[in-house]
Write a structure and sequence with these properties.
heterodimer; A: alpha/beta; Rossmann fold; 2 domains; 11 helices; 18% strand; B: alpha/beta; 5 helices
Chain lengths: 287, 129
């Protein structure tokens, strides 16, 4: 891929989705966009760029979607789910003993492995949760991955990455070549399309927010703005879970990290200045 | 160095498994069927066993039952690795004392994920997307 093409795509992605690619992500673009180009009957990234310059809005959406769709797997990185079971839930079971309800948001749920991992974790502790109401709201930018998440159908490869075999046996059924997560687990997750660049205050208040491996794509101002708006919709004693390579440190003081719990943060009580999405918020995919 | 016994009647599968396991830091021993595997286990118990199901002489299921009844035979972590991909086989294997189950075809990521699951290897370093 030549440099002008790369710069064009970088700018396009930044304008349309907030995705902030560093100068050396040519391989990522090629691996994600070449299949898309071929599908559109184009021979190369250059041809694709030319077509984008001609202003094909469908193609622009497809490009943004292909670049922002993350790979994911069940219990990805494991540690956050240990935190969920060992720190977050025990604490919330005490703190919400009167209300007996907990709301969880998966802010970039992709094809559903994260919300379903949480749903299975909750199933595993169902004894302690008898009489409780636990909501999992799963959102993503891409309608395509949301549809896949709703269906809960996974390939043999997908169910073997991170999912303990006992949980496969317990919570999945075979559907031909695929495995489908049981309807009672699917029923624990509500799906909604959402662009984090837009206002999300209408989702209500959450006790737990999983926002992993999505902010890394945004530029610094956008990150700070999203953290500010996240803090506003969280309970003061709630928990924020970020990806292994992400942090709030050096960006914002609206969240503070928990000692010895990598990736786990709590609202600090410091008021955020972020009131609304950044002015001129970029166009949502699909709009 | 931890040892892993690879039990499979296909030399190709044994070769692929050996390469993956060596990359994961294991010293690898091979057996072509359950009987050979049992003999090796009588001499020295490995830390892990990657076990095929269908093999001549003695199959993997039979081997697992005998292993678990041996003195010390409950210690090795046994990970089935087989084309028997239905829930009945998986349940039978777990009831017989298997620790994990890989459905073929497999790759390094799956082996690493499953070995991590049963505590044979540490979590791989955190990755960004």
């Amino acid at each position: 891929m030549n440099q002008p093409d790369y710069e064009f795509l970088r700018k396009l992605l930044r304008d349309k989705s907030g995705l902030d690619l560093s100068a050396d992500k040519q391989y990522l673009i090629e691996s994600r966009l070449l299949p898309l180009a071929r599908k559109a009957g184009l021979a190369s990234i250059s041809d694709l760029v030319q077509k984008l310059k001609d202003g094909s809005s469908t193609l622009i959406s497809q490009v943004v979607e292909a670049m922002t769709t993350n790979e994911t797997f069940f219990f990805r990185d494991k540690v956050p789910f240990d935190h969920f079971r060992d720190v977050i839930m025990p604490e919330l079971l005490k703190a919400r003993a009167n209300r007996k309800s907990i709301r969880i948001w998966c802010a970039a749920c992709s094809t559903g492995q994260e919300p379903y991992s949480l749903a299975m974790s909750l199933k595993e502790m169902s004894g302690a949760l008898s009489g409780w109401r636990v909501e999992i709201v799963a959102t993503d930018l891409s309608q395509e991955v949301l549809e896949k998440s709703k269906a809960g159908l996974y390939s043999q490869f997908e169910v073997q990455r991170g999912l303990p075999i006992q949980l496969l046996v317990k919570y999945f059924k075979q559907a031909g070549e695929l495995w489908q997560i049981n309807s009672d687990v699917r029923g624990m997750v509500q799906h909604r399309q959402l662009n984090l660049l837009h206002d999300f205050s209408q989702l209500g208040t959450f006790d737990v927010v999983f926002c992993r491996n999505v902010l890394i794509y945004f530029d610094q101002d956008t990150k700070i703005n999203i953290f500010g708006r996240l803090a506003k919709l969280m309970e003061p004693d709630g928990f924020l879970v970020l990806g292994a390579a992400e942090t709030v440190v050096g960006l914002t003081d609206v969240f503070k990290p928990l000692a010895d719990r990598r990736g786990l943060y709590r609202p600090s009580g410091v008021a955020s200045t972020a009131k609304a999405p950044l002015p001129g918020a970029r166009v949502a995919v699909g709009n | 160095m931890k040892t892993c016994l690879v039990v499979d009647d296909s030399s190709v599968v044994r070769k692929i498994a050996r390469r993956i396991l060596e990359e994961l830091g294991f010293s690898v021993v091979e057996a072509e069927d359950g009987e050979q595997a049992l003999e090796l286990c009588t001499k020295s118990l490995p830390d892990a066993i990657l076990l095929d199901w269908n093999m001549p002489v003695m199959d993997g299921y039979d081997f697992l039952g005998r292993l678990r009844r041996m003195p010390g035979g409950e210690t090795p972590k046994v990970v089935f690795c087989t084309t028997e991909n239905d829930i009945d086989h998986i349940s039978r294997a777990l009831n017989a004392g298997a620790n994990e189950y890989i459905m073929k075809p497999f790759d390094k990521e799956i082996v690493a994920a499953k070995f991590q699951e049963v505590g044979l290897i540490q979590a791989l370093s955190a990755e960004s997307a």
